[in-house]
Every structure is written in C-alpha cells, then in structure tokens.
C-alpha cells in the first residue's frame, strides 16, 4: 500500500503539527506533502521526515507572509502536488491540504480539524473584522469564491475523521457530509511527561498568539490578580499582547520540547482560555499532574471532562475567581491532579493510531 500524508503548511509548533508527527510515527515511510515548510519554526522531528513542498516554498518564508498571500496563491500551490499514483491519501487539514490533485482510484481520508476558518467563520479573523469599504467588498468577493472551491474539494474525500463530536457537526453542516464521520481524538505520548517533586510560583499558558485564542482575556485577569504568569508561544498578536501585560507576565516565545515539559511539570496550573476545536495542551499538563483551569466553550469540556475547572472565557472576573478558587483550596488542587493524570491516560496516541489504521483497512477491504 502506497500512502501519502498531506498537511496544510508546516511553519509553527501547533497541535495540528503534533498530530501530523504522530501520523508519521504510524506511517514512517510515507512522504509528507505540504505548501511550505520552515524547519526552524516547527518541531525538530520534521527534519527526519521526507517533506515535499510546493513551489510556494521558494517565495514565502514566514507565517505572516504566508497568511497575507495564501488567498491568492494557496489553492494553486497545493494543486501542483499530483498524488494520483498513491493508494491512500491521508490529509491533516483545516484548509489547503484537500486541494492536492487526486484520481478516482485514490482512497482519500481527511482528518479535518475544522472547516477552513477564514471561509466558514471569517469573523474570527481580526483583519476581516477591521476591513471597511472597498477592502471589505473585495475580501467578501474572494471569500465567496474560496468557499465554492473549498466546498467542491471537500466532497472528494471518501471518509472524514473529526477530533470531537462538536467539530464533526461543524464539518457535517458546512460541507454537507451525509456519511458517517469517524471521531478519533488527537492524543499524546504520555511517557514524555513527568511529575516534578516541587512546583514553582507561576501559572502557565501555552498557545499560539492569535486573536481567536483569547489570550488577551487571561492577560487581563492576571493583570488584576498580580500572580506570575508565563506565556509560551508566538503569533500575529504577540506585540499587542506584550503591551497589554503587566510586569508579572513573562513572554517566553517558542521553547524546546524539553523546556515545555519542564514548564508543565513545575507550574501551579495551566490556564487555557482558548476557543479551541480541540486541546492537546490541557492533556499534556494533565499528564504532568498539573491542574488545568480552562474555557468552558467549544470542545474543551468534551476533551477535559471532569478533570478541569472551567470558566467563562469572556468574563475576566470569572477567570480570576476560578484561579483564586483553585489557589485557596489544596484539596481541590490534589483532586484535579489525580483526575487529570487519569484523564490523560485515556488519550494515548497508540490507541488513536490503531483507530486510523482500522479506518483505512475497512475502507480498502
């Protein structure tokens, strides 16, 4: 069986990239086709993979340039990948991985994190919200065309895999998928994480610094609390968020996997304000026996179950109150640690890989 992996673009350290690495662990001989690849910005393990980029690689170098030009170049770039000779195409995708060239003999499986956000939920993007007049008119025209293209290519998949029931419903509604959508949770390698003997006096956020991640609301809560907060991650909102933060908040940028694992194990709690389609970060913290205080919207309660303390991410007072509630109650802290580590064990990558292999086997038979 000849199998190819496809991913939108490899230029950051995000949850989708971790899922892709785990897919590659399951299919180590499979090449990875993508639009662009920046080895210095993403996980070092990718350097050992057979990564095949589009012609976009020669003209784009950063995530910012990629996002500013994708509307005009992304579709064509991914269409330059002809994968029609493969038996199975497994796409890890939100947007452009589905645009590769295929044939009717290919088995195409889309592991879809969410429908193309810019097309199906443009208001989640700051640039779209700020667009006025002619700029807004042109933006809408481009999005209308992209929506038609995205819908058309979404229909080529023989099977969809979603992360959660909530994202499966979004895929079903936007792409009008009538067939069953498999739900396979992205998972973690729990053996990589450890439990520190002693915690240190800081809280932790691990997130890409984008508008829809809602990190600004957590910053406002910590400005009020005055507690030490470390933030790991980069993104388009980085400079703005730094200006909003008080001196008790430290921005670490990108860190190594080893450093991130250490930060998880030694922090008082992970704060997860994001409006997310999924949440690997809380599971990684739980695997380190670290309490999690998280947003109560989207798929996060589905992922974390009763192993997290939840807040309304749009209510700064509620965020601060829930953090203080955890801080004041040692019994609650220990309860969350015990529940968290048991919850993390349920999300083993080995289980997820076996489920994906089973889906492929059933579709090929």
What do you see in this structure?
The structure is a single chain. The chain has helices spanning 15-26, 63-79, 117-120, 126-130, 133-154, 165-175, 215-225, 238-244, 257-266, 280-287, 300-304, 316-328, 330-345, 349-364, and strands at 3-7, 32-34, 51-53, 88-93, 107-112, 159-162, 182-183, 203-206, 229-232, 249-253, 270-272, 292-295, 309-311. With 365 residues, it is an alpha/beta fold. It has two domains: 3-187 and 349-364, Glycogen Phosphorylase B (Rossmann fold); 190-345, Glycogen Phosphorylase B (Rossmann fold). A seven-stranded parallel β-sheet has the order 3-2-1-4-5-6-7, with helices on both faces. A three-stranded parallel β-sheet has the order 8-9-10, with helices on both faces. Strands 11-12-13 form a three-stranded parallel β-sheet. Helix 8 links the parallel strand 9 (229-232) and strand 10 (249-253). It is globular and about 60 Å long. The two termini are 12 Å apart.
Key terms:
365 residues, alpha/beta, Rossmann fold, seven-stranded parallel sheet, three-stranded parallel sheet, 14% strand
Question: Could you give the topology of this structure?
Answer:
Layout: E1 3-7, H1 15-26, E2 32-34, E3 51-53, H2 63-79, E4 88-93, E5 107-112, H3 117-120, H4 126-130, H5 133-154, E6 159-162, H6 165-175, E7 182-183, E8 203-206, H7 215-225, E9 229-232, H8 238-244, E10 249-253, H9 257-266, E11 270-272, H10 280-287, E12 292-295, H11 300-304, E13 309-311, H12 316-328, H13 330-345, H14 349-364
Parallel strand pairs: 1-2, 1-4, 2-3, 4-5, 5-6, 6-7, 8-9, 9-10, 11-12, 12-13
Helix pairs in contact: 7-12, 10-13
